[in-house]
Design brief:
CATH architecture: Sandwich
Number of helices: 1
Low-confidence stretches: none
Order of helices and strands: EEEEEHE
Strand content: over 45%
Length: 91
């Protein structure tokens, strides 16, 4: 088993005065089968802002060909979760 890797991104968005998020995204947790890794996204509301935190973790540096379908599905789910729309509205 090789070295694990982890990427974490935090994004903060500041809203114009008088606006709020009407439809916040749901927290998402996706796994690669057989404890191969995980992806977690979380949404945190703030005062006139919100933050997203994205974590992608791979528990191995090399995956066998039999694991590729699970990894492909893992990335497809990540892409779908990041396409989620948010609606803003005036307070």
């Amino acid at each position: 088993m090789g070295m694990a890797s982890e990427d974490r991104y935090a994004i903060t968005v500041h809203l114009p005065a008088g606006y709020m998020v009407d439809t916040p995204p749901q927290t998402m947790a996706i796994s690669i089968p057989n404890n191969g890794g995980k992806y977690i996204s979380s949404y945190e509301p703030g005062d006139n802002s919100f933050s997203f935190v994205y974590l992608t973790q791979f528990n191995k540096s090399v995956y066998g060909t039999e694991e590729f379908p699970g990894i492909k599905e893992f990335y497809n789910k990540i892409i779908q979760s990041q396409k989620t729309e948010m609606v803003l509205k005036k307070k």
